[in-house]
Amino acid sequence: YVLKKIRLAHQTDRCWRSAHQE
Predict the structure, then answer these.
(1) Which among 3, 21, 1 has a CA at the least distance from the CA of 13?
(2) 1-22 confidence digits (pLDDT tens)
(3) CB under 8 Å to 10, separation ≥6 — which residues?
């Protein structure tokens, strides 16, 4: 489902941003 992909992408983006910020 596209919605699921978007939600997963959002979670990944948050994790990526957190890792990039550190």
Answers:
(1) 21
(2) 788 888 888 888 887 777 766 6
(3) none
The pair of structure tokens assigned to 10 is 């959002």
- Does this model's pTM top 0.85? My answer is no
6-18 burial, b if ≥16 CB within 10 A, otherwise e? Answer: eeeeeeeeeeeee
Structure tokens at 20: 């990039």
Q: Tokens at residue 14, please? A: 């948050």
Residue with tokens 């997963």: 8
The predicted structure's pLDDT at residue 5: 86
